[in-house]
Structures
1.
Amino acid sequence: IAMVVEGFITLWIFGLLPSYMSERFETKVRASGIGLGYGAGYFAAYLLESLWLMIYNIIINSENFTNSVNFTEIWAIISLSFLIIGSIIYGIAALLGPETKDLDLDV
């Protein structure tokens, strides 16, 4: 049950993305625009994940690293960082995006 609740809490927003993104582009370029948006998002996520894994590797391999550091705490910090950074980016993008309420989509 906990995994279902966690999945709903973290993934519900992705159900809204296709409907919002399709309103952002003219009919002629709609599919390309949505594909570019998704592709750029996955690429940015890959780069951020790679960055955090490099930082994690530096922490683990540092000379000052002791056995008192809990690996679960490090992954929790990394996960929380992803959540915070993603929320900030998503919030800024939502605020900067235009209102599409009365937009004519037949353009």
2.
Amino acid sequence: TRHGERAGGQWDRNAGLVDGWRELEAESGRSIYLACGTLFFARPGNQLFDQNLAVMAGGGLPYELLDEATARRRFPAFAMTDGAVGVFNPDGGLVDADAAVGAFLAG
């Protein structure tokens, strides 16, 4: 699968992206988009992290800022960098690239 986080740092270009995947699922009968939420984490001051946070806030997406201890407790499978902070977007998810390409090819 490929990461298909809804905001992706570029809200204007990706607005409605999830709706498009849902339409393709309905048309093709295939499961394409997995809404599992996304977690970004980095050390404070990381430019990409700050940009993603600004996009989520500016786009009205739900998100939750997590300190290092909270992120480690809620997401123990991730190896957080010491001193990192996190942001969780419950609307984020993954696109199954093989299923999406198959749906497009099937017409």
3.
Amino acid sequence: TSRCGGGKDVVVTNQMWVVAYDVTHDGRRQRVANALSRHGDRVQRSVFIVRVPDGGASTLAEEINHIIDPSTDSVHMVLQCACCEDRIVQLGQAVVPPLADCWVVV
């Protein structure tokens, strides 16, 4: 549970991250995009909004770190708190992908 401004309690099951990257090599760039697309949606050419379970960002960061060349590439991962999601401003054609319903079939 996370407490937002105004005393609002929010149950957090997934963390939302904005991930922006500048990867110089086409192959590595595509592999980074593929890794991110498994967790979220592309909102710009090199920007994704991803949702991972609490603590899952370190696993995603490790996966991306194995792909990139740290001497030439850069990746920024910015956590968006549960309260901030309601405050995202979208202009023009910008759309923040909705949180998808998940179904588990056993």
4.
Amino acid sequence: ARPPRISALRVRANLLDGLHFHTLCEQDSDALATTLDAVAQKFGDLLPRMQWLNFGGGHHITRPGYDIAMLERCITRAQQDWGVTVYLEPGEACAQLSGVLSLPQRK
């Protein structure tokens, strides 16, 4: 049996124009690829009816060593397989390593 939330989503799928998932926290794009496989397995039949897919946050795209090519493949897969617009929420990655806050010493 499907979990109740997934069953409820399927009943109301005609009311949706997109899906949003949040599974990452300071992860590399291999974790996103794993999540995307699970999303395809659970919701692949609904996604072609959607206009957008939000990959959520936690993408450390500015971290040295982050696999940008894998991220690009994940985005391209969603666009080609389901015809959706893909959104990312990079969050802290936008400001990571952007500077240091320095305050004067109190006397």
